[in-house]
Task: structure prediction
Amino acid sequence: MGIVARAQSKIVSVNGTVSEILAGIGLEKNIVGTDVTSNYPASLKAKPKVGHNRNLSAEGIIALQPDVVTGIATEVKPELAAQLKSAGIKLVLFNQTFSADGTRQLIREVAKAFGKPQGAEPLIQKLNTELAGAAKAAKVKTKPKVLFIYARGTGTMMVAGEGTQMQHIIQMAGGTNAVTGFNDFKPLTPEALVGANPDVILLFSSGMQSLGGTAGLLNVQGIAQTNAGKNKRFVTMDGELLSSFGPRLGQAVTELAQKIN
Result:
């Protein structure tokens, strides 16, 4: 018996990947609210939003009167967890590993926790088929050096280091991360940019828009001096597809491989 034993149990999901899995196992009708990263399937966009998964208020969630709040453990702050528990709301959090196996495990864990273990297998079979196709697309003789830049206008520009989901998906797509020597994300500097000298610069579509497109990116100090800048090798993808490591991971790897190679 899973957590949602009752057909009418109400769920607030505060992570886009978890929301996508819940919809995939047939529980979209139970979702009464989501965070702003929950945009796939598109029908989730109509659900009430409770903020960004890294900046959530307990009040907005509690107002939806859910039975269960679910998401990824590293994204839910301890004080929020305490507030929800004191309001009598069950909190079900999962760990996420940025790999194909991690995605399979997350799908199985979510399906089991919500009483739909049999719902995981069709999602995983589809994922496996798409990952097999992605592996073929990623087979290249020379691995391009790819730099991922997270941008929200020129004021906020960060590069993805080691251990990030961006490094993992770049490697799955047949590329190498252009920057090493640090974990997580750090601010972009012109010196680091020129030193990394990427062949390809990768951004979320929304990040490229925030910079004013290709012309705006080329105006960022140091970009024009890189191989990517000289050759205008700039690649954009939907941010949630690229970074979520959810059921569409195979699609994300295939698209990225085709764009960077």
